[in-house]
Design brief:
Aspartate Aminotransferase, domain 1; Cysteine_dSase; pyridoxal phosphate; four-stranded antiparallel beta sheet; Aspartate Aminotransferase, domain 2; binds 4'-deoxy-4'-aminopyridoxal-5'-phosphate; about 400 residues; cysteine desulfurase activity; alpha/beta
């Protein structure tokens, strides 16, 4: 049974008020709130286990190392990677993409080589590649979408040329909520011998992910969007690919031997983990993954699907409502505009009613250009949101609309 009352009790922040109104937190696409077990994991580890990992002979260091490495195993299991060698801890999705873009471009791409991204990418999956394009003269190709916000597989196929080296696409759009057909995208890319990076920032909290079933070459996500702490994220990479890529940053942890003449690098995954890792964050991330696993990703997906369906139906009752993104496969993100009301005004006035939504371009300016708008209001739901909160949102929107 999906015990929403119990779930909401696990997130203390949900019972606070803002401007004297109960908080209705619908900005989960930006970051999720944290269950008590995640916050307690952070304080508990600092209070009772804190010591730098990997290098210490002493008890605390070994205990901290064990927790950190056990967390890697928790992540491995959560996304069904083959081996913990394939799980690299990073600071988040952005750093994971930059790591791959930089090392992949350096080792696998030459001037004129091409990377395929989609029109609905977050800036972190555009700019990371553009930085490499500027350095190496590589070229970005863009998968277009239809009016419903679905990528065109036929157009995608046409983008492949003998110079295509990698595809880098979002699993779920942070603006449209579209769940992209990543298995298909991977299958087509592999038919051209091209690897695929999947940006899982918006999928990991909402749908079960199996990197082997997807046959993803790289899969990246942020801890803070899946009820974990900020500052920690994951890069999954197939061992064969991670082996081929050079180190990203130099420092401690990532080396085997160092002399002034020559340095040899550590084995995977440590080759990509320069410096003291966020071992407090990794433990807390594992707690977050354990938390959602205990509820069940299938249950969360079904519950949020119900919420999204309900919200789509209720929002459409509002006069002047324009919803951006009506893909057949849609996650719990809804972007909209009402009449001529500026997204910023709508967001600001909803805030005064205790409703937290996001406004603006959502770090997806090229998508805004494609839609011919400057920005949207975005409501994004998490496992703890309710239909009652959606009713509050709809009533809030109607109230704001009357003011214009
Ligand atoms: N990709 C997508 C699809 C996202 O939604 C986000 C966060 N909004 C990111 C990448 C970047 O994540 P982070 O800021 O945690 O690195």
């Amino acid at each position: 049974m999906y015990d929403i009352t119990k779930i909401r009790e696990d997130f203390p922040i949900l019972s606070r008020t803002v401007y004297g109104k109960p908080l209705v937190y619908l900005d989960n696409g930006a970051t999720t709130q944290k269950p008590r077990c995640v916050v307690e994991s952070i304080t508990d580890e600092y209070y009772s286990v804190n010591a730098n990992v990997h290098r210490g002979v002493h008890f605390l260091s070994q205990q901290a190392t064990n927790l950190h490495e056990a967390s890697r195993e928790t992540v491995r299991k959560f996304i069904n990677a083959r081996s913990i060698s394939e799980i690299v801890f990073t600071r988040g999705t952005t750093e994971s993409i930059n790591l791959v873009a930089s090392t992949f471009a350096d080792s696998q791409m030459k001037e004129g080589d091409e990377v395929i991204v989609s029109v609905m990418e977050h800036h972190s999956n555009i700019v990371s590649w553009q930085l490499q394009a500027a350095r190496k003269g590589i070229v970005l190709k863009v998968i277009p979408m239809n009016e419903r916000g679905e990528l065109s597989l036929a157009e995608y196929e046409k983008l492949f040329t003998p110079r295509t080296r990698i595809v880098s696409v979002a699993h779920v759009s942070n603006v449209l909520g579209t769940i992209n057909p990543v298995s298909e995208l991977v299958r087509i890319a592999h038919a051209h011998n091209v690897p695929v990076l999947i940006d899982g920032a918006q999928s990991i909290p909402h749908i079960p992910v199996d990197v082997q079933a997807l046959d993803a070459d790289f899969y990246v996500f942020s801890g803070h969007k899946v009820y974990g702490p900020t500052g920690i994220g994951v890069l999954y990479g197939k061992e064969a690919w991670l082996d081929k890529l050079p180190p990203y940053q130099g420092g401690g942890e990532m080396i085997k031997n160092v002399s002034f003449e020559k340095t040899t690098f550590n084995e995977l995954p440590f080759k990509f983990e320069a410096g003291t890792p966020d071992y407090i964050g990794s433990t807390a991330l594992a707690k977050a993954l354990d938390y959602v696993s205990a509820i069940g990703m299938e249950q969360i997906e079904a519950y949020e699907h119900g919420l999204t369906q309900y919200a789509m139906q209720r929002l459409k009752e509002v006069r002047g409502m324009r919803i951006f993104g009506e893909a057949a496969q849609k996650s719990s993100v809804i972007s909209f505009l009402v009449g001529n009301i500026h997204h910023f005004d709508m967001g600001t006035l909803l805030d005064r009613l205790g409703i937290a939504v996001r406004t603006g371009h959502h770090c997806a300016e090229p998508l805004m250009h494609r839609l011919g708008i400057e920005g949207t209001v975005r409501a994004s739901f998490a496992l703890y949101n309710t239909k009652e909160e959606i009713d509050v949102l709809v009533a809030g929107i109607e109230r704001v609309a009357k003011m214009f």
